[in-house]
Amino acid sequence: MNNSTKMLIMFLLIILIFTYYSYMTPKTQMVQNPSDTVNVQKEDTTFKEVETLQKVSPENYIVPKDTTFFYFETDLIKGKISSLSGSFTSLILKNYKTRKGDSLELLKDGQRSFTLIIKSNNLIVDFSNINFKTVYVGDINPLKNDVDSLVMVGFFDTIKITRTFIFKKGSYLITHKVSSNIPLDKKEYILEKGISFTEDNISDEFQYYGVSYHSFNSIYRIKEKNIKNVSTYPGNFDWMGMQTKYFFIGVIGDGDNIEVRKLENKKLEAQFSLLSDSVDFYVGPVDYRILKELKNGMDKIPDFGWSLIQPISKLILSFLIFMYKFIPNYGIIIIILSILFIVIFSPLTFTSFSSMRKMQMIQPQLEELKKKYEKDPQKLNTETMNLYKKSGINPFMGCLPILIQMPIFFALYAILRTTIELRQAPFAFWIKDLSYKDPYYVLPILTGVTMFFSQKISSTATDESQKILVYVMPIMITILFLNMPSGINLYWFIYNLLSVGQQILIKNSIKKKMGE
């Protein structure tokens, strides 16, 4: 297999990687079987309730003038809870900032999280407009002890609901307990207006934005493009929530019946039922290390690619994190990773070059066979294979290194594109964020240039159409990589640069062995 064919295979595989992570992220699925998924057209204004139940919350409830806000602040999270409905109206992650250096808000602009609706017998009570009163307010702003709480009560007629929020130092979890003076059939919550976008590239955020839930040891992702108006997902879950590329707001606890609604601005909001009186709200980063400690399959929230490459992705991520302890610069670690892969695949590269060199030497004989058996393709194929065998050539050896490396490249692409460790991680010079595109497009251009020299040095093509690929492919790769994260471009640039030097050394070594 000649170098142009190898290059074409490599390009197509890169396109496949790019397409998968851009457009083929897991779609809406259901818990038990396909019949469980129900996509239902509904009105935009309200969630429809079961007809046999009576909704007792007043439709035109006037917001109480004495609405107050209760502020809390731990070492990781700060925010506020409104007395109106007892829901979160602000959530800020203290250890993260926007690209402009502002506070990173997961809830803002009228968003409310975990607004409560209760169902009991033939009643549905929507507490979204009920003003709660405080029973206990601990030292939570800031949190002085390791654990403290806020307790609120809300009333509708004779129905009393108590909501308890427990805050802990060193944790992105907020424990929530609900109790009532009447038996509760269901406790439903609403993530109103979803979760805020935090990154500048909104189109990139939308690729990861949606509702995720975990059921029967599998994760299911509901994307905006899968929702026409309102969709209902019956069945059980042990956690659910809403996520963007780097952050997640959700609940850990047994529940069922998720209802997802699309808003006018393509944002989503979700309503869901919880079976337990005590659950944990997670408000934090999509950080594999943190989520793994929570168990319950929360570590599946980060998208590490197809199941077959996920172990490789996790291994690469572990390497990056481990090396960061000694070298606190992910850009340098990516360079080390490039060098490491060049060294690991050197034996395969040498074998591939040897095979290509032998193939080049028998080109005159191959041309003679083509002329001799021009009208007999079957005989031509037989004689060609005999020539390969006689010359000690395996025609598939040329593409073997690429095929073996592709699972690693898939995994590497997943990690460099989505891991929160690279978010706003600086490298050097003008590269201030390895998760963001190169603002001056220097790295993608260098990636294309080094790829051209790499292909030019190793090319054995004699056909004009194949020679054109040496020029066309680097240009197409450059265009494809223009808006990719700097971390990916840095890896490919260094890898290609090292490949050029490696190819020169191997080429000279092979020439010496063959006595040229």
Automatic annotation (TrEMBL):
<dbReference type="InterPro" id="IPR028053">
    <property type="entry name" value="Membr_insert_YidC_N"/>
</dbReference>
<keyword id="KW-1003">Cell membrane</keyword>
<feature type="transmembrane region" description="Helical">
    <location>
        <begin position="395"/>
        <end position="416"/>
    </location>
</feature>
<feature type="transmembrane region" description="Helical">
    <location>
        <begin position="330"/>
        <end position="353"/>
    </location>
</feature>
<feature type="domain" description="Membrane insertase YidC N-terminal">
    <location>
        <begin position="72"/>
        <end position="307"/>
    </location>
</feature>
<comment type="function">
    <text>Required for the insertion and/or proper folding and/or complex formation of integral membrane proteins into the membrane. Involved in integration of membrane proteins that insert both dependently and independently of the Sec translocase complex, as well as at least some lipoproteins. Aids folding of multispanning membrane proteins.</text>
</comment>
<dbReference type="GO" id="GO:0032977">
    <property type="term" value="F:membrane insertase activity"/>
</dbReference>
<keyword id="KW-0812">Transmembrane</keyword>
<comment type="similarity">
    <text>Belongs to the OXA1/ALB3/YidC family. Type 1 subfamily.</text>
</comment>
<dbReference type="InterPro" id="IPR028055">
    <property type="entry name" value="YidC/Oxa/ALB_C"/>
</dbReference>
<feature type="domain" description="Membrane insertase YidC/Oxa/ALB C-terminal">
    <location>
        <begin position="330"/>
        <end position="507"/>
    </location>
</feature>
<dbReference type="InterPro" id="IPR047196">
    <property type="entry name" value="YidC_ALB_C"/>
</dbReference>
<protein>
    <recommendedName>
        <fullName>Membrane protein insertase YidC</fullName>
    </recommendedName>
</protein>
<keyword id="KW-1133">Transmembrane helix</keyword>
<dbReference type="Pfam" id="PF02096">
    <property type="entry name" value="60KD_IMP"/>
</dbReference>
<feature type="transmembrane region" description="Helical">
    <location>
        <begin position="439"/>
        <end position="456"/>
    </location>
</feature>
<keyword id="KW-0653">Protein transport</keyword>
<dbReference type="Pfam" id="PF14849">
    <property type="entry name" value="YidC_periplas"/>
</dbReference>
<dbReference type="InterPro" id="IPR038221">
    <property type="entry name" value="YidC_periplasmic_sf"/>
</dbReference>
<keyword id="KW-0143">Chaperone</keyword>
<keyword id="KW-0472">Membrane</keyword>
<comment type="subunit">
    <text>Interacts with the Sec translocase complex via SecD. Specifically interacts with transmembrane segments of nascent integral membrane proteins during membrane integration.</text>
</comment>
<dbReference type="GO" id="GO:0051205">
    <property type="term" value="P:protein insertion into membrane"/>
</dbReference>
<dbReference type="GO" id="GO:0005886">
    <property type="term" value="C:plasma membrane"/>
</dbReference>
<dbReference type="InterPro" id="IPR001708">
    <property type="entry name" value="YidC/ALB3/OXA1/COX18"/>
</dbReference>
<dbReference type="GO" id="GO:0015031">
    <property type="term" value="P:protein transport"/>
</dbReference>
<dbReference type="InterPro" id="IPR019998">
    <property type="entry name" value="Membr_insert_YidC"/>
</dbReference>
<feature type="transmembrane region" description="Helical">
    <location>
        <begin position="468"/>
        <end position="484"/>
    </location>
</feature>
<keyword id="KW-0813">Transport</keyword>
<feature type="transmembrane region" description="Helical">
    <location>
        <begin position="6"/>
        <end position="23"/>
    </location>
</feature>
